[in-house]
Specification:
Blueprint lengths: L14 H5 L10 E8 L4 E8 L3 H6 L7 E4 L1 E3 L9 E11 L11 H15 L6 E4 L4 E12 L3 H14 L15 E3 L4 E2 L4 E2 L1 E5 L8 E2 L1 H8 L4 H22 L11 H18 L5 H18 L7 H12 L11 H11 L4 E3 L2 E3 L7 H8 L3 H4 L8 H18 L5 H20 L4 H8 L3 H7 L2
Parallel strand pairs: 7-12
Antiparallel strand pairs: 1-2, 1-3, 3-8, 4-5, 5-7, 6-7, 6-11, 9-10, 13-14
Helix pairs in contact: 4-5, 7-8, 8-9, 15-16
Length: 445
């Protein structure tokens, strides 16, 4: 049984203490605060540098509905395309609509802990009462980068399914989500958000390695996924060999992860070039949005906001013509509905799924730029990376590098010649050096 320590002392937890579990003021990036504005009868969002975390939270009125982003972002918005990292996994439980509605917050928190224990899931690090429901959080010992979003989303989905009957909200598990800030009021109930359960020390709740967490929650571990990919690759190579074609050494990636990485590669390419010319901006934006849709990490209903965010990262002064994206939006909606296009007896998504070489030609990517990208690389660059991986693997298994081999050989030559100068016969030198006579003869040449 997993050992769980708990503390129920909400007075020791204010908004800043709880936010510091997953936001580090020493890191680069931004966080968002969403607040009700009664005078304007609307919610108002502001984004701040992480270094201002303490002063921002300390300045907030606890008697106003307030939410805080769980992820950290690049730029002053919380669009998922700008996600820098996240250090928390969470589930938002609206349990007041479930058979558990009679439970008080502390009892419900313990019911969640027991469910996780019974299902073999990691025990939550912290559980907050939001004024109506629960915010269940699992802290990570090291935040994961935005590139890992597809696997993070898979974990979120798995946890949501496990806690579905407890009111897990499927629409509140995205990386751009804001959750109610500890210590602030929920005006619907006049209850204040508070911590009702902590696993471990209040100052340092239990935190998890993301890879180990994901392996315990998802149907397949990373190693098992890799084994399946390698088996699939081996089958593909056998088929290709039969057809008489050559297969390159590109590493296999899950389709959603590949698309997400390609979007990030194009963002990186724009950064490497120090900005884009006027005629290039829309091409970059269209392809970035295409890959964002393919990845499954953004919903078409949010596409305008995500596109605006990407456009701002390309050129903050650019007034993006929204009409130029209409065809892509239509394809994205068809993709989400599960529609497919049939071509030569095969079905394809309506979105664009180009080969790497096509992208290299479209964006005129140079070999130097390829080296700084993750997935959009030529066969030559993939071969170079393959050789580097194989070299590292051999080194890890104890194989010598060529430099080490030549150095060792030179040392043995020096030793053999020194023994020869002392008057030893070749046979005696071989015995002293624990090698063969023929090897000594080669060393003395």
């Amino acid at each position: 049984m997993q050992h769980v320590k708990h503390n129920l002392q909400p007075d020791l937890f204010d908004g800043l203490a709880e936010a510091r579990y997953y936001h580090d003021p020493k890191r680069f990036g931004t966080f968002a605060i969403l607040r009700d504005d009664p005078t304007r009868k609307k919610k108002v969002q502001r984004t701040y540098p992480l270094r201002e975390l303490a002063q921002v939270i300390d300045s907030l009125d606890p008697n106003t509905d307030t939410w805080i982003s769980q992820g950290e972002f690049k730029g002053f918005n919380r669009r998922v395309v700008n996600l820098l990292r996240t250090g928390v996994i969470f589930a938002d439980l609206d349990y007041y609509y479930t058979p558990f509605s009679s439970y008080d917050p502390e009892a419900m928190a313990w019911a969640v802990v027991q469910r996780c224990h019974d299902e073999g899931l990691p025990i939550p690090s912290v559980v907050l009462f939001s004024g109506r429901g629960l915010q269940v959080k699992w802290l990570l010992d090291d935040p994961i980068p935005g590139r890992a979003l597809p696997r993070w989303n898979a974990v979120q989905q798995a946890l949501g399914a496990a806690l579905a009957d407890m009111g897990a909200d499927p629409s509140a598990r995205d990386a751009s989500r804001v959750l109610r800030l500890c210590g602030t009021v929920n005006t619907k109930t006049q209850e204040y958000a508070r911590v009702v359960y902590v696993n471990g020390s209040m100052h340092a709740p239990t935190a998890y390695s993301f890879d180990e967490f994901a392996d315990s929650v998802l149907p397949l571990t990373r190693d098992e996924l890799q084994q399946k990919r390698e088996a699939r690759q081996a089958r593909r190579e056998r088929l290709i060999l039969i057809e008489g074609h050559r297969q390159g050494p590109l590493k296999g990636l899950h389709g959603g992860q590949l698309a997400w990485d390609r979007m990030h590669d194009l963002k990186r390419l724009a950064e490497l070039r120090g900005g884009l010319q006027e005629g290039e901006r829309m091409t970059f934006l269209l392809w970035q949005m295409n890959f964002a849709f393919l990845s499954g990490q953004i919903h078409p209903s949010q596409s305008w906001y995500e596109a605006k965010s990407l456009a701002a990262s390309i050129d903050p002064s650019w007034n993006m013509p929204i009409g130029d994206l209409s065809t892509l939006y239509a394809k994205a909606k068809a993709h989400q509905r599960g529609e497919r296009i049939e071509l030569n007896g095969r079905e394809y998504t309506p979105l664009y799924t180009p080969k790497n070489q096509t992208l290299i030609e479209i964006f005129r990517i140079t070999p130097d730029e390829e080296r700084q990208l993750r997935t959009i690389v030529s066969e030559g660059e993939s071969l170079r990376r393959h050789r580097e991986r194989e070299k590292a693997r051999r080194r890890a298994q104890g194989a010598q590098s060529r430099e080490e081999y030549l150095k060792a050989t030179a040392s043995r030559k020096t030793q053999a010649r020194a023994l020869r100068e002392q008057g030893l016969s070749i046979r005696k030198i071989a015995t002293a050096m624990e090698t063969s006579v023929s090897q000594v003869q080669r060393l003395l040449r």
